[in-house]
Small ribosomal subunit biogenesis GTPase RsgA
Amino acid sequence: MTDALAALGWSAFEADQLGDADLGLTPARISSVNRRNVNALGTDAPLRLVADPGISTASFAVGDWVLCDRAAAHLVRRLDRRSLLQRGAEHRTGQRQLIAANLDTLFIVTSCNADFNVARLERYLALAHDADIAPAILLTKADQTEEADGYIVQARALGDLPVLAINAKGADVTDTLASWCGPGQTVALVGSSGVGKTTLANALTGRTDATQDIREDDARGRHTTTKRSLHALPTGGWLIDTPGMRGLAVADVTAGIDATFPEISALTGACRFRDCLHDGEPGCAVQAAVEAGLIDADRVRRYRKLRAEDAQATESVAASHARKRRTGKSGKPPARRR
Ligand SMILES: Nc1nc2c(ncn2[C@@H]2O[C@H](COP(=O)(O)OP(=O)(O)OP(=O)(O)O)[C@@H](O)[C@H]2O)c(=O)[nH]1
Ligand SMILES: [Zn+2]
C-alpha cells in the first residue's frame, strides 16, 4: 500500500480484495457520482470514469473504492465497502438511495437547546450502527448555554461513544475534532436544520462559502446533479457532504436498532414468544427487567416505537419488491414501443 493511497483512505480492507486479475488496474476513490459517469480521485490526479453499459451510476456511492483502467477511463469494478450509509427506502419504489461509502465516523450533530432530542439521537445512532460507521455526538452551541453538562450527561447515557460539547464557530473546533479527521479518515455530518452542520463543514474544510454545485456536461447542456461529494480536509482526512440525508426514516435497520439498544436486545431472546413486542405479553424478559429496575422504561418505549416504525417501513419495501416480482416491472411505466 502506498502512502498516497493511504492518504485517500485506502486500508488493508481494500488491499485484501486485490487479486492477480487486478494487476494493471488503478485504485481510485469516487468523489462524486454523475448520471453517466463518476468522478474519482487517483493518487496523482482526478479521473472521470465510465462503467460498463447496463451498470447504473446509482449503484456507486461517494467514497467508494473502484479499480479502473486508466487509459480507457473505464471503471472496471467496485471493491467491497467497509461501511455504507443509505437513505431509507422510498415508499414508491422500495429503492434505497446510497449516500456515502467507507465512512469511518458519523458526526451526529445536535445543539445544546430545544433541538436536543434523545429519540432523534437514537434514530441517528441506529442508522450509524446499521451502516457500520462509528458514531460521535457533537453538541453545538455550547457557548450559548450554561447547561451544556446536562446535555452531555444525557448523550453519554446513549452508549459508549464520544460526546463533545462544542462551539461550531469557535477557533478551536478543528483541533477538537482532529482525532477523527486525520490522514485517510473519512467523516460525514448529519443532524437537523440549523444545528451547525454547514458551519462545522466550513470549519473542517477551511472553505467559507456554501458547497459548490457539481455540474455535469452533456449534450443537453449543463445541469446540476447530486451535490454529494468528497472534500479534502487540511488535517488529512475527508468529509463527505450528505445533502441527500434529509429524511430520517428508519427502514430495514433492525440490526442498527438492536445495536443502539444493547441492554434491551440482549434480553429479547429470553422472552417466551419469539415475536414478543414487549408490550405486556406473558413471559416477557424485557418487561421483567423494567419491573426489576434493571433497564429504563423510557428506553424500552422508544425501542419499541423505533422497531415498529422500522418493521412497517421494511414491510412496505418487501411489498414493493414482491409487486415488482409479480409484474416484472421496475415500478416505472412500460417503455413505449417505437
Ligand atoms: N454561537 C453558536 N452559533 C452556532 C453554532 N453552530 C451553529 N451556529 C449558528 O447557527 C446557525 C445555523 O448553522 P448552520 O451551520 O447553517 O446549520 P446547518 O446544520 O448547516 O443547517 P441546515 O443548512 O439548515 O441543515 C448559523 O447562524 C450558525 O452561525 C455554535 O456552536 N455556536
Ligand atoms: Zn418481550
